[in-house]
Amino acid sequence: MKEEIRLDINEKIHRISVSPYKPLRDVLRYDLCLTGTKESCDTGVCGVCTILIGDKAVKSCLVPVGKVVGEKITTIEGISNEEEFSLLQQSFIDCFASQCGYCIPGFIMASTSLLIENPDPTIQEIREGLSGNLCRCTGYVKIIDAVKRAAEMGVEKI
Amino acid sequence: MGEYHIASSVEDALEKLSHCNGRAEIVAGGQTMMLLIRQGLVDPDLLVDISKIDEIRGIQDLGEYIEIGSATTYAEIKKNSIIKKEFGFYTDATSEISGPQVRNQGTIGGGLVYGDPALDTPPVLLTLDAELEIQNSQGCRRISLEDFFVDYYETAIEEGEILTKILIPILPQYSGGKYRSVTPRQGDYAIAGVCVRLTLDIDGVCTTARIGLTNGGDTPMRSRRAEKILEGSEIGEGTIEECINVLGEDLDLIGDVQTSKSYKEMVFKRIARQTIKEVKLELVGGV
């Protein structure tokens, strides 16, 4: 059964007619064409669909869209503008932290949430903060370097 | 696929449930419910979301008990200072749950009602003698966590009831515990998990022992017979070996593609032995 739902995504109002049980990820990708949020495991394991609700990272495949009415949602499209990457994104580029790149939007969102909560994380805290995201190319070392580097450059610019 | 209702109070949620002839489901963090819906295992007409009800969120120190609202997230539990101070090993075990994203959404109540024997923290709560408060349209009832787990993915919660609070008694002096698990990778489901909680008297004799097991059988469970071996002893090497053998007999394991039954049993015994020794060392000063 479809319902009219209003969402606050990347500081814009979106009005859609969908089932409130539909996973937020599918709404983002298929109803709103925000395809930066990826899909893979469907079961809350891989982390490629990570987005922010408020400041908190969540896996959007496990969030029914009915749940986030009235919440502030941020996707990978919302953390930079057309001219400039976010500090974290630039840091991922500078550290060569991406290979195939499919997992990277999820990593950027999880890292963003991590640095908001803990602006100066240790390597171990970064590892733990990113333990909900899988990457099958890089071996994680450069991803962790990139987050560390972004933290050193200053959290206020995230 | 049906309606979604964000409940404003427990009363409101109970009222909604009562009008749905068993065709309603409760959702809190959604970390298990969304899987069940996607797999077609449940197909409710109504989802009642209890995650925003203030009266069942948060952690309070009630003196004899610590009370945790059922809709409190794992992330909130992990960073709570009262829990860290009173039951540090519960905080540590909470860090093993999946990753930060799941902890940000998933709730303590959701994990218990799901009744999955593979979860990390229910056996920890078993070693803490946790009790549950359940509300229904008639009022409120209390049940021990141990009696709550009935069978494989089956709990004592009835149609039209809501788990509202988890009550954990403050531990006596000279108590300590630890949860240890073996997982294929961080945040994954445990092949085996063992939580040991010991309380000793001033002579170093064990007065209370609790051993909780993750994936040891059909439910989150205790090995009562193994606990009995430790109680009344000073937990020497011989007692620990006896305890481990009995624990092995209490396990109800099945092998799977990744890990055989005998391997799982070996892992259980090894981490149980290690954990009992570690908890004892934490409580008894060395020479």
Give a short summary of the structure.
The complex is a heterodimer of chains A (158) and B (287). Chain A has helices at residues 24-31, 87-94, 104-117, 123-129, 141-153, and strands at 3-9, 12-18, 50-53, 56-59, 72-74. Chain A has 158 residues and is an alpha+beta fold.
Notable characteristics:
heterodimer, A: 158 residues, alpha+beta, Ubiquitin-like (UB roll), DNA polymerase, domain 1, five-stranded mixed β-sheet, globular, B: 287 residues, Uridine Diphospho-n-acetylenolpyruvylglucosamine Reductase, domain 2, Uridine Diphospho-n-acetylenolpyruvylglucosamine Reductase, domain 3, Enolase-like, domain 1, 3 domains, five-stranded antiparallel β-sheet, 14 strands
Strand content of chain B: 25-35%
CATH architecture of the largest domain in chain B: 2-Layer Sandwich
Number of helices of chain B: 12
Summarize the main sheet of chain A. Answer: 5 strands, mixed
List low-confidence stretches of chain A.
none
Order of helices and strands of chain A: EEHEEEHHHH
Total helices of chain A: the number is: 5
Secondary structure: number of strands of chain B: 14
Task: Summarize the structure in words.
The complex is a heterodimer of chains A (158) and B (287). Chain A has 158 residues and is an alpha+beta fold. Chain A has 5 helices and 5 strands, in the order ββαβββαααα. Chain A is 32% helix and 16% strand. A 5-stranded mixed β-sheet of chain A has the order 2-1-5-3-4, sandwiched between helices. The longest helix of chain A has 14 residues. Chain A is globular. Chain B folds into 3 domains: 47 residues, Uridine Diphospho-n-acetylenolpyruvylglucosamine Reductase, domain 2 (2-Layer Sandwich), CATH 3.30.43; 116 residues, Uridine Diphospho-n-acetylenolpyruvylglucosamine Reductase, domain 3, CATH 3.30.465.10; 109 residues, CO dehydrogenase flavoprotein, C-terminal domain (Enolase-like, domain 1, 2-Layer Sandwich). Chain B has 12 helices and 14 strands. The interface between A and B is medium-sized, with 32 and 27 residues.
